[in-house]
Amino acid sequence: MVTLQNKALDKEIRFDREIGRFGRGTTGPTLIFFGGVHGNEPSGVFALHDLFNDLARIQPDMSGRVIGLAGNMTALAQGRRFIERDLNRLWHREQIHNIQKGKLNGGRTIPDVQEQVSIYDILHHILQTEKGPFYFVDLHTTSAESIPFVTLNDTLRNREFAMRLPVPIILGIEEFLSGPLMSYINELGHIALGFEAGSHDALQSITNHYACSWLVLEAAGLLKREDIPDFQRHYDTLHEQSNDGDHVFEIRFRYHRTEHEHFEMRPGFRNFQEIRSGEWLATNDKGKIYARENGRIFLPLYQKQGEDGYFIIREIHPVWLKVSAFLRRYHFDRLLKYLPGITIDPENPHRFRTRRSIARWHVVDFFHLLGYRRAGTTKQYHYFVRRAYDTEAP
Q1: Which of 168, 222, 262, 383 could form a disulfide with 376 if both were Cys (CB 3.0 to 4.6 A apart)?
Q2: Dihedral of the CA atoms 96, 100, 105, 108 (nearest 10)?
């Protein structure tokens, strides 16, 4: 049991790993929320606590079941992003294999890994005992001032679900981050997205998380719009905060902050703020860091913990989203092996490689159109793999 206090709200809550559960679960889908995967982001936990209290009070006729889970409870109790290792960077194949085989050894003494093992066990118990389809939403906040937005692995199934929310969508974050929880769940074949509500300490972030949770209940088919109190107010709460509510962006660049690097963002950057190539963004031990291209700043780092200094994103025109959906549904990727400079990787038959000296023309964008993500780059090659369960569930 963990206790959280919010002085601004003059409120204290106590919760276990399972924050709440509501619904019959005999018919309809199962929706799982996560809050507090980062311990300095308690907003989602407060919002889920309010959600389940209100569901218990209102008793709506729900088709399916909703479950709320707390993330890094040890870090939440201390108000830290993580204790030793970032819980939202641990969900990669090797780590999951070690959990399954009981081969964590010394890792079991790391508090964040202990949290991961607990979440893994509960997660797979839910998948084995509850009724599908399954939807997952991970509630987060940012260190910089921000409008609410959604991040997701770029599958068409994720896209279509996320577009039910009136906030900007960020595609392709899995290319730049290793081991996010939602990426692991995507690879299991379930729809999963992250919802960022605003800055860590803003009361509006709790309001945004609460509004998002009601909208997701409707989008996943658990509740009808007319059965949700103040549905339009929740919708407007999110919609009115951004001029980019129906826009889709892709990540173009990530500045990776090393563990011992003295990295410091210039003050005052806001999420989605436009920047120009060559603009001074941050400083490290070697001096000034400049933007490598035009775009918008995304997730600038204004906290001591974290590997992501900042990202640069750009908007995707709606026409290209439609072209991409068409090409993926009709499996145009079958033609890839016939194009110059593109071959099947001899070490992995499920991976394409492109010779960088030949396939230069927007090669990354081209693979993105077809539903592939970049899985690595060397001096000679780019490597690409198809996103799992892009158009169909397992």
Answers
A1: 383
A2: 70
Residues 97 and 233 in one domain: yes
DSSP symbols for 271-319: TT-EE-TT-EEEEETTEEEE-SSSEEEES---SSS-SEEEEEEEEPPHH
pLDDT score for 306: 80
CA torsion through residues 224, 229, 232, 235, sign: negative
Q: In Å, what is the CA distance from 378 to each residue of 179, 183, 342, 356?
A: 21, 23, 15, 9
148, two tokens: 């609410």
Same domain, 45 and 128: yes
Domain that includes residue 256, residue range: 248-315
What pLDDT shows up at residue 327?
94
> Could you report the per-residue pLDDT of 14-30, keeping only the tens digit for each?
999 999 999 987 788 99
Q: Which of 184, 218, 239 is the last residue of a domain?
A: 239
CATH number at residue 174: 3.40.630.10
CB count, 10 Å around CB of 380?
Answer: 10
Strand arrangement of the beta sheet that strand 381-386 belongs to = 342-344, 351-355, 381-386, 372-377
- Domains: count for the chain: 3
Single residue among 260, 281, 315 that ends a domain in this structure: 315
Count CB neighbours of 363 within 10 A: 19
Q: Are 72 and 39 in contact (CB under 8 A)?
A: yes
Judge residue 340's burial from the number of C-beta atoms within 10 Å of its C-beta, 0-12 exposed, 13-18 middle, 19 or more buried.
Answer: exposed
Look at residue 79 and give its three-state secondary structure. Answer: coil
d(C-alpha 160, C-alpha 166), whole Å: 12
- Has residue 392 been placed in a domain? no
pLDDT in tens, 200-218: 989 999 999 999 999 999 9
**Which H or E run includes 264?**
strand 264-265
